[in-house]
Specification:
alpha/beta, Serine Threonine Protein Phosphatase 5, Tetratricopeptide repeat
């Protein structure tokens, strides 16, 4: 019970006031989404949330009026009415004069059909401390429940005179007008509300009606009046309705002119931000869309991540399509040489692994080719499963060779210069002579090269490898196996076994025991581990080549996904080294993103320490990366 209370948090960014809204069974979800301190989403039953978490959280803040109020508001929105009643009564004792405490308690009494208690609480607040719009609106609901229609109407109007922009009150007023007088009644009600001092909400609805009549000039005039009346600190719902309505009717420039300069991410949140991102995206203003995306990412809201990742991918895809048709000099392809494993730095190797003889056999691993069929498009595009599989295989084979034999390994990655840069995915297997030439091109020259290829055209895709002696470009051996692209563990491990056997037989390398801390994740985590290796490759290539900042896409998903893999494999040092390698590369490429994850990574190190020798190396790498 204590563990859940410690770990699980809910976002409670609610309005600062509460109004009574009827709850239907369909509105109350059976599961409650919660997020732990690492940003991972969990789902627990409403009963568990109410019994095991909510009550303890409320009890912990029962002497803090502000936190208590916010938590009660969130619980009410989630349908926990009976559970929060004692705490609302406690808040009323702490704040016997404030309208928010009276309103909150009155709302709960009203939802529980304790009408006398609701009336007493709300009316007493009005008598003793003066009129308040939210208190009066909910008092009007009490009268409405009792069938005192005239009294309810008069009290509601008095509340709207005090605050003509309270969302619940305005919605109720318009609903009554429609029930009694139809569309004409709604129009008259909106005009009556708009005549009240400071009334901006009615203008939003009048502007929407003007848009539907295709009277854009009238709509824009009303929006401008609403913005002026609302003042400097604009309510989120104002910008949300304005941007939504203008966007839905195609007035994107007008939307951005009014909403973009006034947008404050902390105040206006995801919905307004997405409307602005979409408007910029549809206008081809990808840099502006990306800037807004980064502002929302910086809030570090785990409940925003799914929507932000969607737009992250959309923007990256659109940029890739745009680059494909941009007139640019013909791209050139170079081959990047990287030490393997990618996550193994010199300090780690020196302190945690046996020393390699500098004259040991050097094997290069070259992937990045896949036959995806005639429908596969050429040109810049986001990485797909086929590309990731073939690149991850080379990384995995190189890692296995380096850590399980006395030989050394490097990875060769073809990289395109120009058109934004990118990892090359060849449509055909790399020619034997070209592979051998690339492996021997720079010092130290590789003695052998292992070339991998994916054929994804058949109903049952296959992975193949060739072992080539580089000095004469002779194919010494080849292997092929079926592969499940979603679950490649069996194919990868089979090819790794064959590769190790071939190199021991052909190259004379000796098998050694891998370090006891080196452990490849298995089962469902195996595929994720290969994905993270391939992402580390992309970050490494980007850093080495100095590619444009938009070469990488989804850096936050890379860090979050690798972090979650580390949490699932908390006692395994291998994914932890991948995470540190990724932090190091991304710090040089996009330090803003790394800064967003710094606290999580440092907490991972504190809360899930590994063996002291390994922990010391990891801590040193993290400190050096973040210095």
């Amino acid at each position: 019970m204590k563990l859940l209370t410690k770990l699980f948090k809910r976002r409670t960014d609610r309005a600062s006031t509460v109004e009574c809204t009827a709850l239907n069974d369909a509105d109350v979800a059976e599961l409650v989404r919660v997020y732990d301190s690492y940003g991972r989403e969990h789902a627990i039953t409403r009963q568990d949330w109410g019994d095991r978490v909510l009550l303890e959280n409320l009890a912990a803040v029962r002497q803090d009026p502000d936190q208590l109020y916010e938590m009660i508001v969130g619980a009410l929105h989630d349908g926990f009415v009976v559970e929060v009643l004692p705490f609302a009564e406690q808040l009323r004792e702490l704040e016997p004069t404030t309208p928010r405490a009276a309103t909150l308690l009155g709302v709960i009494y009203l939802q529980l059909q304790r009408l006398s208690d609701a009336e007493h609480t709300l009316a007493q607040q009005t008598r003793q401390h003066g009129d308040d719009a939210y208190v009066l609106t909910n008092l009007a609901k009490v009268y409405e429940e009792r069938g005192e229609t005239a009294r309810a109407d008069a009290t509601l109007w008095r509340a709207l005179e005090l605050d003509p922009n309270q969302e619940n009150g305005v919605a109720w007023f318009l609903s009554l007008a429609r029930e009694r007088r139809g569309d004409l009644g709604v129009e008259q009600a909106l005009k009556a509300l708009a005549a009240l001092p400071g009334s901006w909400r009615a203008r939003l609805w009048l502007a929407r009606a003007a848009l539907e009549r295709q009277n854009s000039a009238e709509a824009l005039r009303l929006y401008d009046e609403a913005l002026e009346l609302a003042g400097a600190s604009l309510p989120a719902e104002l910008l949300m309705q304005l941007s939504g309505d203008l966007g839905n009717h195609g007035y994107l420039v007008e939307l951005l002119k009014r909403a973009a300069p006034r947008f404050v991410p902390e105040q206006h949140g995801l919905e307004v931000g997405i409307n602005l991102i979409k408007a910029n995206f549809d206008l081809g203003r990808f840099d502006h869309a990306r800037a807004l995306l980064n502002q929302l990412y910086a809030l570090q809201r785990p409940d925003y991540q799914q929507a932000l990742l969607y737009w992250d991918t959309q923007i990256a895809s659109a940029r890739a399509r745009a680059r494909a048709v941009e007139p640019q000099p013909a791209p050139t392809v170079a081959t990047l040489r990287m030490a393997c494993p990618l996550w193994l730095d010199q300090v780690t190797a020196a302190e945690l692994l046996p020393r390699k003889d500098e004259n040991a056999v050097l094997v290069a691993f070259l992937g990045g080719s896949a036959n995806r069929g005639a429908s596969a498009a050429a040109g810049p595009q986001l990485a797909d499963t086929a590309g990731r599989i073939t690149r991850a295989l080379s990384l995995f084979l190189g890692e296995q060779f380096h850590l399980r034999t006395d030989g050394r390994s490097i990875v060769l990655q073809p990289f395109v210069h120009g058109h934004g840069g990118g990892l090359v995915l060849a449509a055909k297997p790399w020619p034997t002579e070209l592979a051998a030439e690339n492996a021997r091109h720079d010092e130290p020259a590789a003695d052998y090269v292992v070339v991998t290829h994916l054929d994804a055209t058949a109903a049952s895709p296959t992975l193949s490898l060739r072992l080539i002696r580089t000095i004469d470009a002779t194919v010494l051996d080849s292997s092929e196996t079926l592969v499940d692209l979603e679950w490649p563990e069996q194919a990868f491990t089979e090819l790794a076994r064959q590769m190790l056997d071939d190199l021991q037989h052909r190259a004379g390398v000796q098998s050694i025991d891998a370090a006891p801390w080196y452990r490849v994740p298995t089962d469902s985590n195996f595929s994720d581990y290969q994905l993270r290796l391939e992402q580390l490759l992309a970050a490494t290539a980007c850093q080495l080549d100095g590619a444009r900042p938009d070469f990488l896409n989804g850096e936050r998903e890379m860090l979050q996904g690798t972090l979650e893999l580390c949490l699932r494999e908390a006692a395994n040092a291998t994914p932890r080294f991948v995470l540190m390698g990724l932090v190091q590369r991304l710090q040089a490429i996009n330090p803003q993103v790394v800064g967003e994850f710094r606290e999580k990574v440092e907490r991972l190190q504190r809360e899930y320490p590994l063996a002291p020798s390994i922990q010391a190396v990891l801590d040193a790498r993290l400190a050096a990366a973040l210095a």
